Amino acid sequence: MTRKSAQTPLLWIVAGGFFMQTLDTTIVNTALPAMAADLGVTALALKPVVVAYMITMAMIMPASGWLADRYGSRNVYFTTVLAFVLGSLLCAFSHTPTQLVMARVLQGAGASMLLPIGRLTVLRSVSPKEFISAAAFMAIGGQIGPVFGPVLGGVFVQTLSWHWIFLINVPVGLIGMCAVLRYMPSQKQEGTPRFDFIGCMLLAACLVAFSLALDVPAADHQAAWAMGLLVLSGLSALGYYLHARRRAHPLFPLSLFRETNYTVGIAGNLVCRIGAAAVPFLLPLMMQLGMGYSPLHSGLMLVPVAIAGAVSKSWVSPLIMRFGYERFLIANTLFVGFWIISFALFSPEWPLWLQIIQLAAFGLGNSMQYSAMNSVTLTSLSPQQAGPGNSLFSMFQMVAMGLGVTVGGALVTLIAGPARHLVPAFTWSFVCVGLITWISALVWRRLDNNRLDQVIKQARTASKAA
């Protein structure tokens, strides 16, 4: 048996885990109205069901590498899949919104480590020249998850019930657990240093407090609660700064933020993704609650977004090498924001073919935007900074996605008001999140182009040599 064929089961395991993670990130959005009707609440009241999953992933992701080193990749990955399966079962059998949110936290805890540990295991199992093709194979799971998620959500809601969007994970997870025990290497590392639990808890408190401050769950004294949570978030961030200065090996070294392009990339990602991440949450709700589409119809309408996104990924590198990071990111940011704002035109009378064009154009631009933002953020880091820098960046990505749902839902609730005028509320919410996306164009003007030009020159040289 060749080395490549020996690693094939491992690649399937990791790609399957990535598929489950991305599937559950998208499948819930289509089913929210049906879930809300069954649980006796409004669809917008279930925002925490989506946000809790993403924030939990953001909180636990930084510990994934340390856990894999300390206890072994196989043991931790098996436990991760088990937590995901148990969380899915609890979601399916939830009878109240509170129970569902708590179950989503457990599910998010499992999902948080599926990709990081899987990618780390493959990185340690294949040679450097094999990792490029291995990474491409693993990415397939992440690409098809968003395609199947909305459609499966619509199919299950219409033909069975919303509970099946979670129950489908059980047989897949059980097969995955058996495969992990048989094919995944242990890779336990001896002499693993102590984990920075204090730093991790301070960052977690900062993220959770900030997220809750934007959409306070309390019914009374919301302004006071929001201010208190913002103060807590700020104090937690300050506490981490003081802690990281004193600790020899903090969770994330402060030296990362002395790299201009990394800091600008984090800020630009955060602002841009808040706007763009609101779209997959708002579109299915608008289509079902405002336009009268069925769950399956609304799910199928999101397929052009995923397909166009997969097609456009190969265009990013040539465009960046031709126009440079700054010009490409500014132009593409304006492009993405324009199509987000164009969703304000959606109505039952709006032509279907034009809706599909708008969705495909958004998917095309948004996919290129994510790829370019990822690249510009990480490309200037040194090899020593790459590990912690990538982990912190992944955490901010999940936080931004959660904030997108929070901000989008809060805008609809605020604009709709007590009279519950949902159609104009969705219309103006898309205008607002599109404008938020445009704001990130101002951030990209702060990039250090001298460093980035060197990276582009190196990429051009390597491309010519190849």
Automatic annotation (TrEMBL):
InterPro entries assigned: MFS, MFS_dom, MFS_trans_sf
* Coiled-coil parts of chain: none
| Domain named Major facilitator superfamily (MFS) profile: residues | 10-452
GO molecular function, one example? Answer: transmembrane transporter activity
* Top-rank lineage group of the source organism: Bacteria
Q: Does the keyword Transport apply?
A: yes
Which ranges does the record mark as transmembrane?
Answer: 46-68, 75-95, 101-122, 134-156, 162-183, 195-216, 222-242, 262-283, 295-316, 328-346, 392-416, 422-444
Kindly give the PROSITE patterns that the UniProt entry links to this protein.
Answer: MFS (PS50850)
The entry's localization annotation reads: Cell membrane
Keyword Transferase set for record: no
Instruction: Quote the SUPFAM superfamilies the UniProt record gives.
Output: MFS general substrate transporter
- One Pfam family recorded for the sequence: MFS_1
Signal sequence residues: none
* Cellular component GO terms, alphabetical: plasma membrane
Main location group: membrane
Q: Identify the keywords attached in UniProt to this record, alphabetized.
A: Cell membrane, Membrane, Transmembrane, Transmembrane helix, Transport
Please give, as recorded in its UniProt entry, the membrane topology of this protein. Answer: Multi-pass membrane protein
The identity of this protein, by name, is: MFS transporter
What lineage is on file? Bacteria, Pseudomonadati, Pseudomonadota, Betaproteobacteria, Burkholderiales
